[in-house]
Amino acid sequence: MESNENDNQKITSGAHISYWTSNVLPMRFKELKRNIETEVVIVGGGMAGVSTAYCLAKAGRQVVLIEDGNIGSGETGRTTAHLVTALDDRYFNLEKIHGEEGARLAAKSHKEAIDFVERTIAEEKIDCDFERVSGYLFLHATDEKDSLDKELVAATKAELDIQKLSYIPGMIDREQPCLEFKHQAQFHPLKYLNGLCEAIIKYGGEIYTNTHADEINSEGVTVSKEFKIKADHVVVATNSPVNNWVVPHLKQYAYRTYVLGFKIKKDAVLKALWWDTGDHQANENIPPYHYVRLVSYNDEYNILISGGEDHATGLADVDELPEEERYKTLEIWTRANFEVEEKVYQWSGQVLEPMDGLAYIGRNPLDKKNVYIITGDSGNGMTHTTIAGMLIADLINEKENEFEKLYSPSRFKLFKAGKVFFQELKDGIVNYIKNNPKDTEASQLLTLEKEDGIIVKIDNEKLGAYRDGENKLHFVSAVCTHLKCVVKWNKDEKSWDCPCHGSRFNHLGKVINGPANTDLEYHVEKDFNFSEIEFHDEETTL
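Predicted structure:
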């Protein structure tokens, strides 16, 4: 389902509209245009920030939440909204890194997150299509044969309700074993967020949208470069922290992931969740996997939502499969495994993979004790961010929380997780160097196709040039405002993506994903000297 890309990027962080955003618009509140004081200020209006605001407001805290777009207009509106204890990083791996007790606590925390969502929906009377379902984990052809058995043992020790089946319910190729994770769930994330926001207001909280946090420190937040929010506690819930330039970004890596929605007959398959164990040939360290669920559509059809084909952000071309081609590969896989009909949705999202498999939730490293961050969703964003809401609220309310140490952003599992992570980091840097966009002769702007972008050098400045659908060229600085890497054009979502730490900017240079918190400089024709370039194409608009 497509519409004008410029309109789309006003309500979501990409050119494509997700299933969720197509039928529920993200909530919008007034912009903050005055100085205020509060107990807690929260930066970020996605699942992490709104969950935290809800927990604190319900506990009687004075809360202000700010979001520079609309509620859920970032990655929350681009998720597939699995609520799971079946984590992306296998429990036998988590056990090696965090020990048996750590793996058990991880399982318990995600179980409590699902229970919290279910309980909150009932208490606040939120209609968000919540359903309990089973989830089925099955082997990817490249994975080791004993992977499921190792996971069964580790997940059982972690006290999950799990069993091995000899077949996979719902799939075309049923005759292979899988693990059934019971008591998983799914919901509509934007309906849920909208309900939480209504509850936050009911409990006395304040929400401001279209309000950008320019400066963040232990005393509060400055917005619109002039208005100040003075606060006793500051929570940064921006997916990738925009208040910390270095520490968290050395411990996690950004990936793009792709999603398709297909019509499927209502009686074709039961509602459930499905995941394979990942393509170990594509990436042995962090295997990209497929993930599937169903949502209601109309009287005749459900929508089967299928995701996968991940790659490091900005580095899709490393294996010669650009972003826009990933959907074709995903469609082939989906049609081979499910009896789907017409494709009606496509979009992509971004996930942050931490070095040891679990999110970073708690006090910001090397900062004052009243500053907190939430990041490193590890592909399980809906439960990790719900855990964050409960955990951050407990820290601020000085309540003991058994998960505090497990999710502490200050932890550093170098000797247990470091080898895999630093191999991934090294590979990313090497691939970045190999694929760093070379300066293109400015004359190539003449042949640049509509809705495409290239890196050029004009007047000794490296620029990103994008030609829109009306044939007009837009120029931005090609140097990321985070740590000065050169961005690359994402033809699929019409954005400039940074291969180093995952920052993303739209074609006008506006930041749409951290850790960058400052826009790319936007240029117009008069900023540059085109006198030495001969342009003969009368249709070219500069």
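Summary: The first helix runs from residue 5 to 11.
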